[in-house]
From TrEMBL:
Stored PANTHER family: TRANSPOSASE INSG FOR INSERTION SEQUENCE ELEMENT IS4-RELATED
Transposase IS4-like domain mapped to chain residues: 126-352
Region annotated Disordered, chain positions: 419-443
Biased composition (Polar residues): 433-443
Source species, domain of life: Bacteria
InterPro entries recorded: RNaseH-like_sf, Transpos_IS4, Transposase_11, Transposases_IS4_N
Domain Transposase IS4 N-terminal: 18-108
Entry protein name: Transposase
Length: 443
């Protein structure tokens, strides 16, 4: 009797494991297994929540932000069969601790490599368009988080929440992330950007915010790999010498490096050559600096206007924080290790959505993935994930095909170039009435 029950349970576990394998249409199980082995957390012991399922749990925490981790895991039905239909919430916590953050980071790294390789991104002058910028995430105010990450401060002391400073690199036509680095709030964004150099693809152009003006960083970016170019706005206090004119608003300039920069970047020469271009846009003169010094290969007409594409990464951050996380700006986790796991899960979940949008855009000729509604596509994809049980994986290819066939319904109208969004400070909502006049004016 006991033997028959054991055989039956083994069959159920094997069937459920096969169901997880069938999710290869979304996330290749072999790739997940490779990531777990690389991170050193792979195990042969079968649990109700194996590590492969916990990867999906971390992703679900990002995709279903309004649910608890236990609710998200239960809704996606990622638990293997057992005597009880559900596991205790503490099993989710223990499963996350077994998984750690390195495994989720490895899954993100391996998936982005595969998805970008199959994407066939559009190029400009033979270069893939990328952008690098920083963003800040708020964490729960625990002693561990505050000690590890720190927070902003003023004359009255530290602010309410510890914060994580992150720098990401994004492909601009698809909004898919390439790499990311993050550390405490007081970390230097340029040092974090330096950690992204090795993952930068060859034959690419990276657009930087002017705050990343570091000749050591830009020189290392250009010298590592083949045809890795950069473009950023010229700082107002930058000093340069014109070496030769290429046109009325086009010149090759020499930038002198500082001893401090050469000490930090030993391979940095005394001077660095770059190309300076100027153009008047809406009555304002804009000057950009770039490593694309060959005027024949890189004509000047579109280079200055190309810089406006840098804002795509800002839209990507808004999609993550407001669209995917539903405006819940404070992360869930109480410890730094789980914060890192959660952040890699957010980036992985965002790339998963964006890759599905890329697949949908293939059914819309002439449409880039960034021209599709992230909110509408996310609702459709999450509705698909929410309604598909892992115990019935055979329906996944059919549901994905139907989703991709309806892609034209999610294309956004063309952007209006004349739209303006001036920066304003909005008052915080309050239950008390607002007094419009000063007390001295009431008499």
């Amino acid at each position: 009797m006991r033997l028959s029950r054991a055989l039956a349970l083994t069959h159920e576990v094997a069937s459920a494991t096969h169901s997880l394998d069938e999710l290869g249409a979304l996330l290749d199980p072999e790739l997940v297994s490779t990531a777990l082995e690389t991170a050193g957390v792979a195990t042969l012991r079968k649990r109700r929540l194996p590590l492969e399922a916990m990867i999906w749990c971390v992703i679900a925490m990002a995709l279903f932000r309004r649910m608890s981790a236990w609710d998200a895991a239960s809704r996606m039905d990622i638990m293997l069969p057992g005597q009880r239909p559900l596991v205790a919430p503490s099993a989710i916590v223990q499963g996350r601790q077994r998984l750690g953050s390195a495994a989720v980071r490895e899954v993100f790294s391996l998936t982005q490599q595969r998805w970008h390789a199959s994407a066939n991104h559009p190029t400009w002058a033979g270069l893939r368009l990328l952008s690098v910028d920083g963003v800040v995430w708020r964490t729960p105010d625990t002693d561990d988080n505050r000690k590890h990450y720190g927070s902003a401060s003023n004359q009255h002391g530290d602010t309410g929440y510890p914060q994580v400073r992150m720098v990401c690199q994004m492909e601009l036509t698809s909004h898919m992330l390439v790499s990311s680095a993050f550390a405490g709030y007081h970390s230097n964004e340029m040092k974090l950007a330096g950690q992204l150099i090795d993952s930068t693809p060859d034959h690419s152009l990276t657009l930087f915010d002017r705050g990343f003006y570091s000749l050591g960083l830009l020189h290392r970016w250009q010298q590592t790999g083949t045809q890795r170019h950069w473009l950023l706005l010229l700082r107002k206090d930058a000093h340069y010498e014109v070496l030769r004119k290429l046109g009325r608003h086009d010149a090759i300039v020499s930038l002198k490096t500082s001893p401090q920069a050469r000490k930090q970047w030993p391979d940095l020469p005394d001077t660095l050559q770059a190309r300076l271009l100027s153009k008047t846009i809406k009555g304002k003169v804009r000057q950009v600096l770039t490593s694309m010094i060959d005027p024949l290969h890189f004509p000047p007409d579109d280079i200055v206007e190309l810089y406006s594409q840098r804002w795509e990464i800002e839209l990507g951050y808004r999609e993550m924080k407001q669209g995917m996380l539903a405006g819940h700006y404070t992360l869930r986790s109480k410890t730094p290790e789980m914060i890192e796991q959660e952040l890699w899960g957010v980036l992985l979940g965002y790339n998963l959505l964006r890759y599905q949008m890329l697949e949908m855009s293939r059914h819309c000729p002439g449409i880039y993935p960034c021209e599709m509604s992230f909110t509408a596509c996310t609702w459709a994809i999450l509705g698909f994930l929410n309604g598909v049980s892992l115990r019935h994986p055979g329906n996944i290819p059919r549901y994905l095909a139907e989703l991709q066939a309806s892609a034209m319904h999610y294309v956004l109208p063309h952007r209006r170039e004349d739209r303006s969004y001036p920066r304003v400070v909005k008052p915080k909502p309050s239950k008390y009435p607002t007094r419009n006049k000063n007390a001295s004016q009431l008499n």
